[in-house]
User: What shape does this take?
Amino acid sequence: KLILAIETSCDETSAAVIENGQTILSNIVASQIKSHQRFGGVVPEIASRHHVEQITLIIEEALLEADVTYSDLDAVAVTEGPGLVGALLIGVNAAKAIAFAHDLPLIAVNHIKGHIFANQLVDTLTFPLLSLVVSGGHTELIYMESEDSYKIIGETRDDAVGEAYDKIGRVLGVPYPGGKHIDQMAHEGKDTYNFPRAMMTDDNFDFSFSGLKSSFINTVHNAKQKDEELNHNDLAASFQAAVVEVLVSKTIRAAKLKNVKQLVLAGGVAANQGLRTALEKAVFEELDEVELLIPPLRLCGDNAAMIGAAAFVQLRNNDYADYSLNGRPGLTV
Ligand code: ATP
Ligand code: MG
Ligand code: FE
Assistant: This one.
């Protein structure tokens, strides 16, 4: 079964052709980062305009690279949410037009489910599993008993991890999005600043990163006021150590409690080298017979291939959308 998948929830315009939910025939990703960088974040109006300009070209390129035509397809899938409403609508309307013109079933996909299913493109998801979703807008521990059952057992009470990275990146003057740069700097530095590990020992699976962010910003401002030297690499390393320690310890605890077969990392922050290494080590040392899945770097950020992987479950279940499909910016799993 061939699915054409479309993703336009934020600042990547992407289209992919996926076979049987697991094989990538093409996965074209056009990033808009350069257009948003001078504003220090994603500007929704600019994002929508870029999606409009790019969408038909990217879809054509995805079909061309996969060497398929519309008549070869079994369905068209699109991200319906969560994301920026204007950005989502470009993808949703493109998908509806294709479904109508070529008489194809339409599949509406949740972007966060897509991030989890990115792993299905290189491995096989085995249930029950626990997924740590860490991205620009989400930080969640999601328990999945089967391929279409999602239960959030813990989440951030304030900032998402990626959001915290990008905010402190701005304070250190690195380009948007700061996550990748802070990660690189962290590897050159040491954990000398001892930032708070919020909620780490609390008896729940929730997270909080705004206190850590404030503590970081205060440290930088106080040092500037006193004209003290700051070691940016050590600051980055200290921030990352605090983030990783909290994420890993709570995730391992949840995996033990839920007795899962797999632990699945997902989302843009899954690209973080410190997190990947620490999670591998903790799973090896603390969890018996739990398989750890970590997506390859090229599938961590937003892409349409992951949407096609998630859509395949819905295709098998005849879970289709109709032409009233709309963008749903606040959609949850
Ligand atoms: P969501 O998926 O929650 O809707 P989003 O789609 O905007 O949000 P993603 O594209 O999944 O978010 O992830 C982008 C985030 O990942 C950014 O905040 C970025 O800084 C962060 N990120 C990317 N690489 C790294 C890294 N190596 N270390 C830390 N953060 C990273
Ligand atoms: Mg993005
Ligand atoms: Fe995302």
